[in-house]
Amino acid sequence: MGFERWFNRTLNRLWGFVEDRTGMPKWALRPQPAFTFKPSYWTGAFVVNAFLYQVVSGLLLLLYYQPSTNPTLTPCGQPVGQMSSAPAAWCSTYYIVHSVPMGSLLLSTHLYGAYAMIFLAILHFYRGYYLGVYKAPREFSWMVGTLLLAVTLGMGFTGYLLPYTQLSYNATNVGIVLALRLPTLGPLLGPFILADGTSQGLLSRMFDAHVLLLPLALAALLYAHIALFESHGIAPPATSDPLQRRRYTEQDDKKHVPFVPHILFYTLKWGLLYVGVLLGIAALWPWNLPTYVGNLTAVGVVTEPDWYFLWVFKLVDFEGVTPVIAVGATTVLLLYVLFLPFLDRSKRTHPRDRPFFIWLATSLVGFFILMTVWGGETPGVQITPPDVALTLGPVFAVNAVVVAIFHLRYRRSYLRRLAARGMDYAGVYGAGSARSPPSTAPAPAAEAKPLD
Description:
Layout: H1 2-22, H2 43-62, H3 88-98, H4 103-131, H5 139-161, H6 166-180, H7 185-194, H8 199-232, H9 250-255, H10 259-284, H11 310-315, H12 323-338, H13 340-343, H14 355-377, H15 385-420
Helix pairs in contact: 2-4, 2-10, 3-4, 4-5, 4-10, 5-6, 5-8, 14-15
């Protein structure tokens, strides 16, 4: 115990010397409150950890991958002495899986890591949505985070084609058709995506976007997101108190836990756990490489994108929904999320005080899950309007009932607790609200401890 105390004290002194000489507390690695030492407060750090692993594993894969559609002279899974007609992109992927030491593990972790990064980014997004972290003064941080999520999905889309399988090629073509249907933007994107119109041009553009353009955009947005986080600090817990401060002062920071060694070791622990779980899953369920583009045995391959785009894929199967409508709906959804801080003007962050926005978010969760499963089970099967109404209608209706019940229940509970503490918030749910308990007690000061 004595050694541990000495070690921590020595480490704090060394790091204090570094901070003093570099002025680091003014621009990075801001201290955080002790109550944030819970996994739910660090979902953003998990996304960063997943991104770093993708960078490392992707650079290792680049040592062997060839972004070419030309046939190779190697057997590539064919009997010895028999030349393969498979494209070099597919053959180099085949070589990674079967000939590079631990290549199958490396490629599988890169693929599953991409899935994990997208899932963690969505989890981080919904956590912020439900807890209202997009409210002032963090509006721009939310908008940058939304763009980060969009770029992450773009990374998944461009990387899907690189193994150059028939399945990924078909799905990419469908996605490109949808992208080109974007009003105004589609015709502008066409030359950049399709290049000279050949398969090699398409693969080269997807490769360039995946390994250079999108990673640079992701890194720039990530820097901006972290800088904004350092500026405002972590968001306080959600509350119904509209007077609660939404940022921490320098005096608050002096009472908080320093980044090194406490927060660094805490996030490092979870990062190592993430890598360990990823390696374990990839070792138990290695990815199987589908057949290559142009293989005559791939005639019956069903066109199907990766799971995170299956909902859009299925949306086009709805009767009367054209690619233009599907892309338009996706654009509207993106704009809604992007400008959410300016749509939800309430100063309260607790979910019970935002029933409409909570209903919308919860309904969209059910919608995305249902559409993803639906698209995977019945790809390409047209759905009539009555089936759409009978399948999706209950999702929104049931969520509306559940959110309304919880909103009314917790609203009454909160007002009873206010009355028990002798408080009178005439403005808790609007001045003159019939549910506001009558009282002459003075309103609490801005620095009073908020009642969650």
